[in-house]
Inverse folding.
């Protein structure tokens, strides 16, 4: 690795790292016995962190390291595969052959893993076990990561920055990653790959990006954020003069909630956040779990005529067989109910309720109920 000073090294991880890794490991296995490489095992105490990070139940994880030096020690410098498999950057980074045993005793290796799972394990090994006191450059680190893994990847960077003294430089166009990392004060630089240009992300840039997504350049006094499009329609029916935005899920809503406490120094509309009703730890939430759940379990409220036995059977059957969203759509079809009809009845049901008075006070004045 190229040396900056006696203590600081530079590591480059390209967006093609996962492709290179598969090619290098495959070549090694196909042409020699990979067991000639030293095997290391992740300690049980660290395994808990890894399992939490990627929502797995590994009981054992071992890995072998392949880098440019041990590859050429085994195969020499003269074979053409050296130049094909290792470019300027991959010569300075390690690759890993990983074997895991899960909670059911099943064993499999990294060649059988999905890319997201493998990349999550590799990031953990790199930033928790291998790399210390380094400048780490990562190009598009979140390719192949699920949203859940992305959040925990952010925590891994934060821990590695604070404890292992690594400095991270990221290029990304992933707004969720930017949201997660901007909430923490760590030694990190991000370069945002946006269609119009490429730029370092300062705090001011971040607020502008946030505004571009949600404010839509409109001059509004405040914005109400909710989890999904039906919650948006319900709130808009109750507060037709307010701007309501949905953000695809509770995780994104929590990010907005955190952002709302950071906007004082920038001109941005007041933010109001209303969670789905099943988020019982939140004081400001809908009066029911969510619109779909409410309709599924109270469908008789939304029709004028009596439900026939045949219709009742069909409704019960689709509730058993389908996921919530599909069951909701099927029930609307079975009973010939329009979505607008459901929302109108919900608005009428709650517009004079105690909940409506409390949520109005919150929206208009920022008052949080005790």
């Amino acid at each position: 690795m190229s040396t900056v000073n006696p203590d600081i090294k530079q590591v480059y991880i390209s967006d093609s790292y996962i492709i290179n890794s598969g090619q290098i490991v495959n070549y090694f296995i196909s042409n020699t016995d990979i067991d000639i490489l030293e095997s290391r095992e992740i300690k049980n105490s660290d395994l808990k962190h890894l399992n939490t990070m990627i929502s797995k139940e590994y009981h054992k994880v071992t890995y072998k390291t392949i880098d440019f030096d041990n590859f050429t020690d085994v195969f020499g410098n003269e074979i053409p595969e050296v130049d094909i498999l290792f470019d300027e950057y991959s010569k300075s980074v390690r690759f890993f052959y990983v074997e895991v045993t899960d909670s059911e005793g099943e064993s499999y290796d990294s060649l059988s893993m999905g890319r997201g799972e493998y990349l999550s394990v590799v990031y953990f090994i790199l930033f928790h076990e291998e790399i210390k006191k380094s400048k780490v450059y990562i190009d598009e680190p979140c390719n192949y990561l699920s949203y859940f893994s992305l959040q925990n990847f952010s925590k891994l960077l934060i821990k590695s920055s604070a404890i292992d003294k690594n400095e991270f430089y990221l290029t990304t166009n992933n707004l969720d990653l930017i949201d997660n990392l901007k909430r923490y004060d760590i030694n990190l630089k991000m370069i945002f790959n946006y269609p119009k240009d490429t730029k370092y992300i300062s705090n001011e840039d971040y607020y502008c990006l946030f505004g571009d997504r949600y404010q839509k350049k409109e001059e509004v006094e405040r914005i109400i954020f909710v989890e999904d499009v039906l919650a948006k329609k319900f709130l808009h029916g109750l507060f037709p003069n307010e701007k309501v935005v949905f953000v695809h899920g509770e995780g994104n809503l929590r990010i907005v909630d955190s952002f709302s406490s950071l906007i004082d120094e920038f001109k941005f509309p007041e933010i109001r956040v209303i969670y789905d009703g099943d988020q019982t730890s939140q004081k400001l939430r809908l009066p029911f779990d969510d619109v779909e759940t409410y309709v599924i379990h109270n469908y008789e409220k939304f029709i004028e005529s009596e439900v026939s036995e045949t219709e009742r059977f069909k409704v019960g059957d689709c509730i058993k067989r389908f996921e919530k969203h599909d069951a909701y759509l099927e029930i609307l079809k079975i009973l010939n109910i329009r979505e607008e009809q459901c929302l109108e009845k919900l608005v009428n049901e709650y517009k004079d309720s105690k909940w409506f008075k409390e949520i109005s006070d919150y929206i208009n004045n920022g008052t949080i109920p005790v």
